[in-house]
Design goal:
The structure is a homodimer. By secondary structure, chain A is an alpha+beta fold. Chain A contains 12 helices and 10 strands. In chain A, helix 9 runs antiparallel to helix 10. The radius of gyration of chain A is 21 Å and the shape is globular. At the A-B interface, helix 8 of A face helix 8 of B.
Chain lengths: 348, 348
């Protein structure tokens, strides 16, 4: 594989507008090929035929999508798990045994998973608020792929998908939000109500069913039927985000004014622990990084760049650490290397 | 008052043998005057008469005890509470309203409380293992006072005291132990059993009924009847302490060998929090100081002196902070000044 799998951190939002609140934007289209059973009912030969077809599009003469083709079974565990940690490959796809693949853009933002829940899952993930951009990315891929393949489509229902919640546009848009101040002033219910009102789902850092870590929240559209892709994207981009970003910023200002000493205390404690611990767990580290992130956004800490923290949110994951420090690292050794990385990055 | 109430930290055990495990040694004798009702049954004139008598001994022509006489009602709150934090005055005595006083040696180690639970409570407290020395201190004061005053004494029972548990010698010997390693290797039950076998009481940092903080334990004799002062002292000094000190040291060695990385992690985390927090609670700070103390004793930290931590264990108390930074400090302001003091002392 020619691609560097640890480049271009998708959370590195510091150069994007509203990157102080929104870490990343993501779009995903679920598509299936006409005439093939859905993946969960497909035989190995069926799956093979699907990957072959998509492979031709990606690497054949007609390759206009500029993606690199990677058979997941041909991939070493380390790279595969790095992709999982970057949300390029679902852990279901990584650990499955049927024929499956991923096609990835050289900059890692665009990718196509083949034979995950659906035959094709087109995805784009970019730092900060870039919902229009990720929509454009996936639409472009979608149109090009469709030039070569017939999608399973119903005039009434739209695109047909393995899970009924994806039927219609097959589109899901999501953003990763950092809302520490709204949590501190106990105003998160307001966000939850807003989500409910707009049929958006709000989840923890690791998606469905995961707990909230580091005040990171994934917000995405719940339904795809009855709206166009543009409409679904606009709900997040135009209706939801401006409101929530304003709320979080106002909350940060409130805390800066009213609870300055507590904010400083919490920020510097997190910094002190990260700078001094010799073994750091993943969730704990995410939590302290979240606290420092708030400290940077409120000017409590001025000598650490936001992008350092944004990148660390990804780089502290076990396989990213193995990528950097040695693939043989055991689970028991990881916390020590995590603290080593953190100390290096925070003191730089 | 001519005495500096914050001098000579009683926990400053770093120059005493076994000071790595034993912070301080203390002896106390409970005495009552013949012909006067016990304090809880005494009238104000009774109490006044007792204080007058003791006052004469301390400041009269025959003053051979070298103590300074301090009427508690004449003392400002700040000094009074500093004495409480140094265990020179019980909080019961500080807040009582009947006539009462304290006579204190210039170096603060020796003192006589007048009209606490008993008419007279002679006390000596010294850093580290100095049980023979504190016994000598209180005996010396006891003999000198007895030259002028007749004690309530019964040939069968010995010295009579307000509380039956003190009858006999009226003596209580206690040591303050730091047992972090035995807690970590889960071997504290061994210490508890040893105490039980020797009729010793083991308590938390703040004595009876208090929770365990910072792995600090107060161990003292439970009964005083049927033993001589020397025997009671010897149980602690000869039977109990050598065993427990050896146990704790062995546990520290074990941790240093077997759990070096965890030990370093815990030590440096404590250091990181203390160095960076902007508001520190009392119990929390005691806990982190305890962790650093273990780190110093196991050579994990080498650039902080044990005496710095020993002194801080006392200096972080609210009235000591008010003594240093301003008596007007409110309870809300204390945690910020505590962290200020800590940062100053740890970075020095």
């Amino acid at each position: 594989m020619k691609i560097d799998p640890v480049q271009n951190c998708p959370f590195n939002s510091d150069c994007t507008p509203n990157g102080d609140v929104v870490l990343s934007s993501r779009a995903r289209l679920a598509r299936n090929l006409e005439g093939f059973p859905f993946v969960h009912r497909a035989s190995a030969p069926d799956c093979n035929e699907v990957t072959s077809l998509v492979h031709q599009i990606c690497e054949g003469e007609e390759n206009s999508v500029s993606l690199e083709w990677v058979e997941l079974d041909a991939l070493d565990v380390l790279t595969k798990e790095v992709f999982v940690e970057r949300h390029l490959v679902s852990s279901a796809l990584a650990t499955a045994t049927h024929p499956r693949a991923i096609a990835i853009g050289p900059e890692l933002s665009r990718s196509v998973m083949v034979n995950e829940e659906d035959h094709i899952r087109i995805q784009s993930i970019r730092p900060g608020v870039q919902l229009q951009e990720v929509l454009r990315d996936v639409q472009e891929l979608d149109f090009r792929i469709e030039e070569f393949i017939a999608y399973a489509f119903d005039d009434q229902l739209g695109f047909l998908t393995a899970c009924p919640t994806n039927i219609g546009t097959g589109a899901r848009f999501s953003v990763m939000l950092h809302l520490p101040a709204l949590r501190i002033i106990k105003d998160l219910p307001k966000v939850q109500n807003a989500c409910e009102g707009m049929s958006l789902a709000i989840r923890g850092y690791r998606g469905e069913g995961s707990k909230v870590i580091a005040d990171l929240f994934q917000v995405s559209n719940q339904v795809t039927l009855g709206y166009s892709q543009e409409q679904l994207c606009a709900i997040l981009a135009n209706d939801f985000l401006p409101t929530v970003i304003a709320w979080e910023r106002k909350a940060r200002d409130t805390i800066s004014e009213m609870q300055k000493d507590t904010l400083e205390d919490q920020t510097f404690r997190a910094f002190g622990i990260l700078q001094n611990a010799r073994k750091l767990g993943l969730d704990e580290t995410l939590k302290w990084l979240g606290a420092i992130r708030l400290g940077i956004c409120t000017q409590v800490i001025e000598d650490i760049e936001l992008k350092t923290i944004n990148k660390l949110l990804i780089e502290i994951h076990p396989y990213h650490l193995r990528w950097k420090y040695g693939k043989e690292l055991t689970d028991e050794e990881i916390p020590a290397y995590r603290s080593k990385l953190i100390r290096e990055k925070l003191s730089a």
